[in-house]
Amino acid sequence: MPSGVDTSRYLGLYVSEAQEHLEQLSQNLVKLEQAGSTGPVIDEAFRHAHSVKGMAASMGFEATARLAHRMEDILDAYRSLKERVDRATGDLLLSATDALLGHVRATADAKVLPDTSALMGALERKLWVLKPDTTPRPSSPPPPPALARSLGLPPRFALRLKVAAGSATPGVRAFLAHKRLSGLGNVFDLRPGLDDLKAGRLNDGSFSLELETALHETEVRAALNTIADVELASLRLIEPDAPSVPKTNEPEGPRAVGTEPARTVRVRTELLDQLLDGAGELLLATARVREVAKSAPAASRGAMEGEVDRLNALVKDLHAKVMKARMTPISVMTDRLPRAARDIARRRDRDVELTITGAEVELDRAIVDELNDPLLHLLRNAIDHGIEPPVEREKTGKPPRGRVQVNVRRDRDRVVLEVEDDGKGMDDAKLRAAAVSRGLMTPEAAAALPMREALMLCCLPGVSTATDVTDISGRGVGMDAVKRAIESVGGTLEIESQKGKGTRFRLLLPLTVAVVQLLLVDVGDETFGVPVAKVNGVVEFPEEQLARSQASPLLPFGNTLLPVYSLAEVLAVPNGHVHAGARPFVVVEAESGKVALGVDRLRGQEEVVLKALTRPLDLVAGLAGVTILGNGQPIFILDVPRLLT
């Protein structure tokens, strides 16, 4: 890692912002490859490359800045020449974007930057082909900074500044000057480095840098005049070494990186988690105070309950605001998909059009984090297993280009996310046969499954109908992990498919994992919470009238019989209750399908704040979390899908 980087304070900001710019740049390049050299898209791609270059240069990562600079040159050449970005160039620029992302991640991990000399050579050769009259041949040394301005970049100034000899805090004054200049444009070649600058280790009180900015020299001077104890010793324009290329109707160069949008602040996700925990604790404490108030003397109870109501309203409002701060657009997940779809389709010789709607819908950040990989896996499956090769599609009367849609919508208190393709669909007969061959069920049970449940067999470990195994998918693993991830955040997975027509995966997701609706049940002397989202129904039925099989008792439910499990036995809870007459059964969705859990009493529903388990309780299968009721009683929340595994 280069010297002069303030890793303790600025590295995290550099890494997060650079990654955001590179993700956006990747999306722009995919759009360019599809639509050609369209003005707004290529302008946006140029701005992202320019921002990464400036950020890297101001941090002292010169290799990263040079690579981003060369990408910027090529994008600007296409912008000027109005040429279409072909596939080969798209591959080259996307490879450069990946390399830049590798640089940023290596920087974050304090590792040596990957060697990109071969990639730089390819970029320089491409640039020379595009602009042979203004660009040195690739074998020549890198062009001077002024040559980049001939391709449309802002002017660059060389500055030397000096901190007054009597200054009590020379490092602070020098750093303020550097920060002010960073807000005007892109800072290069800072000497000494930023660490030495902040520590006040200056040679004769002086330091120098180069500033690339669209502002006039007088504006640069004016910006420095307000910093006490700092004198501008010299300022000169670095003259171009090559004739400039005329610019026509091009947007003004982007302002410097380093300035935040007005009224916006970055907050660490860990801090948001802590705020949510604190707000949740306040909700629990308020509920406890309400219970205590019920035992107060009658004369003061009314006033106390009124104040408790007011406190409860304030705390709920605070909790809602923290929850809102945690909400993030689903675009954080879906923005990655166009690039992934393009790469998968290229590797599998597919022609695929991806459309995304509803990406502005917001979800709890914790849910978004958990669903990044599952959503990408569903996209891989849609292209690799769903969409047929163009020739095969034409034989069946379909257009050669396959269609994959990702649709997101808000449905009351949940979000529905669908991944749909118009491919060959899923073969339920093969799924049934695969489940039987692996000993997961009998042929009779497999044949009796309704279509929707038969399709869900693909989520059992090792069950796959893929005819070939690729480096993308087809090993019979993955869908079980997808289903577990969706259920871990309180969601549900549904599958619809029609042979020859296509497949739709539907994810039903809660808005947040912090607050959940529970069905409270008693088992022996203990109370447990069952997430309402996993409850299919509640029935009372005489235990002695249950049907019997070799495996377990069976409960009539709808048009089928469900296996029955005693929750007391599953959780190893002492149960002294004898059920004379009807017993409550809670029908839930487990890993193997619907089952009925026998309980002792139903206590009703309650909205609670979910708290994560700590070691060693987080290792106990079947427990999802813990909460505290208003009476101060702590209860465990059951992880229903894995309760019986």
Distance between the termini: 48 Å
Radius of gyration: 31 Å
Characterize the biggest β-sheet. Answer: 6 strands, mixed
Oligomer: single chain
Average of per-residue pLDDT values:
80
CATH superfamily of the largest domain: HPT domain
Broad CATH class of the largest domain = Mainly Alpha
Beta-strand fraction estimate? 15-25%
CATH architecture classification name of the largest domain? Up-down Bundle
Layout of SSEs?
Layout: H1 11-35, H2 39-59, H3 62-81, H4 87-108, H5 117-130, H6 145-150, E1 156-163, H7 170-182, E2 186-191, H8 194-199, E3 206-212, H9 217-225, E4 230-237, H10 269-293, H11 298-326, E5 327-329, H12 331-334, H13 337-347, E6 352-357, E7 362-364, H14 365-386, H15 390-395, E8 402-411, E9 414-421, H16 428-437, H17 443-448, H18 451-455, H19 479-488, E10 492-498, E11 502-510, E12 515-523, E13 526-531, E14 535-542, E15 547-548, E16 553-557, E17 560-566, H20 567-571, E18 582-590, E19 593-598, E20 601-609, E21 623-628, E22 634-638
Parallel strand pairs: 6-8, 13-22, 17-19
Antiparallel strand pairs: 1-3, 1-4, 2-3, 5-7, 8-9, 9-11, 10-11, 12-13, 12-20, 14-18, 15-16, 16-17, 18-19, 21-22
Give an account of the 3D structure.
The structure is a single chain. The protein has 645 residues and is α+β, with helices and mostly antiparallel strands. It has four domains: 11-237, HPT domain (Four Helix Bundle (Hemerythrin (Met), subunit A), Up-down Bundle); 269-328; 331-510, Heat Shock Protein 90, CATH 3.30.565.10; 515-642, CheA-289, Domain 4 (OB fold (Dihydrolipoamide Acetyltransferase, E2P), Beta Barrel). The chain is flat and about 95 Å long. The model is unreliable at 1-8, 139-148, 241-262 and 471-477 (pLDDT under 50). Strands 14-18-19-17-16-15 form a six-stranded mixed β-sheet. The chain has 20 helices and 22 strands.
